[in-house]
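dumping this here before i forget
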Amino acid sequence: MRFFATLFFNLVFAFSLQANDVIFEDVNVLTMQNDQVVTGATVVVQNDRIVYVGPAERAPNVSSSATIINGTGKYLMPGLAEMHGHLPFSNWSQQRQERILFLYLAGGVTTVRGMLGDPVQFELREKIQSGEMAGPTLYLAAPSLNGNTVNSPEEGRAKIRKHVAEGWDLQKIHPGLTRAEYDAIADEANSLNFPFGGHVPADVGLERAAEAGQISMDHMDGYLELVDGGERRMTEPDFSRLIDITKRSGTWVVPTQELFNVLIAGGDIDAMSARPENRYITRDTLASYQRRAAQANASANSLAVENRQRLLKALADADVNIALGSDAPQLFSVPGFSIWREIEVMKQAGLTNRQILNIGTQKPGTYFANVDTFGTVTPGARADLILINDNPYENLEAVFSQEGVMAAGRWYSRNEIDARLDQIARDVAN
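structure:
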């Protein structure tokens, strides 16, 4: 009986993967081009693009088979971006691969910058694009360059050329590289117009990484180290110095704040263990999270976390390039839902609702502006959308209560999402 129920669900869900004309009627739209909300609008989606946003009487004619979604009293905003996420690997089962990709969607994440490459991710991206599999739009970082994978400047250059030829979207940097190796990698990558980002190796440091053109400083690597922020309370001159380095270079900051705050100072293990999204991970995984958090509690550095929170607020207020990321799936970071936790900790740091929404939608679109158009609800943008029940400018938590998610023009209703999540919960419980 369970087999037939699962088969029926898969057939229904596969139907939803086919892109179709969709019309959102009488909906309030956050375009993310400004703070205004366009009320009572009609939004028309054809294939993977938004083609119209405006009054119903001016909307273009579409197919009679278009899906009509009643948006009365609801709000439509761009999908969220996970700018430091991890994607399935070749040695995972197909079921696990599909599960992780769907969990991103279930949290409203419609774009993922995958930050640890595996060749199977090219296949997964093609399956998502064709509609064979449900998932967000994927941008793929090449396999990591680090102290174990690079043994000389020449090898670093050669691996950059190899990764460019293979078609990766950017190069992931990990710790352990010498200064000479890093400089060679940066020089080769820049000469080939190949972005590189991630960690900042200790031998390199924040200032050199920014000068070399590293596109993103993930986890705020190098920031506290430069001003000894793990040992003393940071000052306004410290913030000014770090802001200046960041703005002059134009680099992006992907804080992964929630995860690193837990890694540095631990947290309330009972509260984290009680999060509802833990039903989508195995008991063994949850137990490993609890053990790791207990280790962090034993060596907690609350000062470093305080400094990270204050620094994040200072960077946001200075309007540096910040993008949302959670490093899922990691410690208590269930894909998709971990972005919600990142939003919560940004709110705790004092960022405004407007700042957080921009960081989660419009800013990632700016990062990828030379590749595609997304992160706004405007004609020509990729149709990555979330339908929610309240105005997130006023109630940020409304982002966590979604009536449905659209990824590249494919609509997933609340009922479809819940049915798939229930199946995932049953699968991981066995």
